[in-house]
Design brief:
The chain is 5% helix and 44% strand. The longest helix has 12 residues. It folds into 2 domains: 318 residues, Tachylectin-2, Chain A; 189 residues, Exo-inulinase, domain 1 (Jelly Rolls, Sandwich), CATH 2.60.120. The chain contains 3 helices and 39 strands. The N terminus is likely disordered. The structure holds 2-acetamido-2-deoxy-beta-D-glucopyranose (NAG) (8 copies). Keywords: Glycosidase, Hydrolase, Signal, Vacuole.
Length: 563
Amino acid sequence: MSKPLTRAVIFCIWLAFNGVDAASNQPYRTGFHFQPPKNWMNDPNGPMYYKGVYHLFYQYNPYSAIWGNITWAHSISYDLVDWIHLEHAISPTEPYEANGCWSGSATVLVDGKPSILYTGANSKNQQFQNLAVPKNPSDPLLKEWIKSPHNPLISPVDDIDPLNFRDPTTAWLGPDRLWRIIVGGEIGGQGVAILYRSEDFVNWTRGKTPLHTSNKTGMWECPDFYPVSINGSNGLDTSVLAGLIKHVLKASFNNNDHYVLGRYTPEMDTFSVETNFLSNGSDMRYDYGKFYASKSFYDSDKKRRILWGWILESDSEADDISKGWSGLQSIPRSILLDESGKQLLLWPIKEIEKLRTKQVSFDDMDLKSGSVFEVPGIMAAQADIEVSFRLSGLKEAEEMNTSWVDPELLCKEKKASMNGTIGPFGLLVLASKDLEEQTAVYFRVFRKQYEKYVVLMCSDQSRSSLKEGLEKTTYGAFVDIDPVHETISLRSLIDHSIVESFGGNGKACITARVYPKLAINQDAHLYAFNNGTMDVRISKLSGWSMKRAQIVPIQKRRKPSIT
Ligand SMILES: *[C@@H]1O[C@H](CO)[C@@H](O)[C@H](O)[C@H]1NC(C)=O
Ligand SMILES: *[C@@H]1O[C@H](CO)[C@@H](O)[C@H](O)[C@H]1NC(C)=O
Ligand SMILES: *[C@@H]1O[C@H](CO)[C@@H](O)[C@H](O)[C@H]1NC(C)=O
Ligand SMILES: *[C@@H]1O[C@H](CO)[C@@H](O)[C@H](O)[C@H]1NC(C)=O
Ligand SMILES: *[C@@H]1O[C@H](CO)[C@@H](O)[C@H](O)[C@H]1NC(C)=O
Ligand SMILES: *[C@@H]1O[C@H](CO)[C@@H](O)[C@H](O)[C@H]1NC(C)=O
Ligand SMILES: *[C@@H]1O[C@H](CO)[C@@H](O)[C@H](O)[C@H]1NC(C)=O
Ligand SMILES: *[C@@H]1O[C@H](CO)[C@@H](O)[C@H](O)[C@H]1NC(C)=O
């Protein structure tokens, strides 16, 4: 381990680098997550890589910290870490969008020029799909956008519920050279991905059948549809239709982003799924915590698919108004298909590691039954932690009950404070010195028949803050790993009021929002704990303080100006 600095010294160094915002009256403002300077933000929109620049648009209220007056705000980056806010890209000006310019996606067309499809809501909240194109496509910053004179391009006719018809996807090109998109909807009480085709991106014709539908869910918001490579290490462009691939269909409903895998046949536009939404034992989600309305894009520079997701607040609207802001974006995550082919792996993009500073590291350390161990020497309120646990005595694990099909329910029943055999063990993040406040991110292992084991990952917010009136749900996910042959890994990105946790190298993700009263800034601590009766071994633990990302309006940028 490196020589520990005292917490106060670290904090002073950190302040010098990071300014005073986070330390003053804004303890929940984050250091390295994307956010506008103030006000309301929700869904990420139209992310793309264009002429060397990453673009992120997002649903934004220019006037207040609550939802309303929804506009497409626009920020750009060269590395997905530091961001520059530009002028708004699309604002409500037309009757078909009187109640806001809602979510949508970007597509780079065959001529290399980008286009945006977005939803407009009129004064009755009826929803229409619209087109916007850049005024000057040779400008890599794509500062100005022009709405198509043909808008609205797609209206809610026939059986489509006009109040539930939104969020067009990035388009993909079929073998017949027609573009395809899906739009989220609800028809006859069922969630549906309505398919449209177009030759010219302006005149769209509805497919006879939807791409997919489910009678187990209502409205599908923010659908996403894209290929993933089988056993490949690169992401794929949205129009890749052949080769060793599967397709992912994601839909947002019930406060989570759910996905299914399947085979897409472009000639027929059929999608044959391997599992279905909300089926027991295979209910796959990008994230089992606070993460919604996500959208992916293909980064042609680094040949990867990247996911953005909206991280909501879990404090009250009054708190948001007094903070002056609401909503953050997740750290961008790369998406790959796991080698089993049965699920996705999500992992924070490599670039975020450039913010890592001051490291602590331990190898091969016992975490005895009943122990709590403070991880010293880093700024625990703004950190990146990776830890892996090796287990023994697995035969002693408690027996799995076949009625335990819902991991969140199981985590609620078996909170961190409840003793077990193998687990609970894990991290206590954003914890106060006396542990009065703590957010436990932990595992438990259960035994099934034939020496098979079930690994449960939980994030327990019930003791995260002494403050009342917060949502403190406990989240849970099963992690498909074999603890006999593999270590159980956990990475947590801790950023003042966000804890983004990745179990099993990205097989299960849980994002939590917490608002501690005591465990803020230099008073936040980080611990590893084990309250199972069996000892656990930490095979490796590495932790880093994180520097602040530079996320500023273009006028305030410290680096040399850009054109
Ligand atoms: C929307 O903007 C109008 C005009 O600026 C303002 O009066 C109204 O309060 C805003 N609504 C919200 C919810 O921000
Ligand atoms: C739109 O496309 C459809 C199907 O290709 C075609 O029948 C129709 O004539 C087109 N409409 C216009 C206005 O171009
Ligand atoms: C729901 O859809 C499935 C196919 O996806 C079908 O087998 C089942 O019968 C449907 N259930 C109802 C109640 O319509
Ligand atoms: C999942 O399992 C539970 C408990 O066995 C059952 O009540 C529920 O109906 C099942 N849900 C689905 C979607 O099959
Ligand atoms: C990926 O490769 C591994 C190792 O060769 C193999 O076991 C696995 O079945 C492959 N996955 C798929 C989905 O084909
Ligand atoms: C829980 O387990 C820990 C560690 O084994 C032990 O110290 C503690 O007394 C137990 N608490 C209860 C309530 O059983
Ligand atoms: C499994 O859980 C159910 C419901 O809580 C309970 O009735 C049953 O006894 C449990 N089975 C075993 C083997 O523990
Ligand atoms: C571990 O067990 C001890 C003793 O029962 C308890 O005080 C502590 O809160 C437990 N840890 C967690 C994270 O619940």
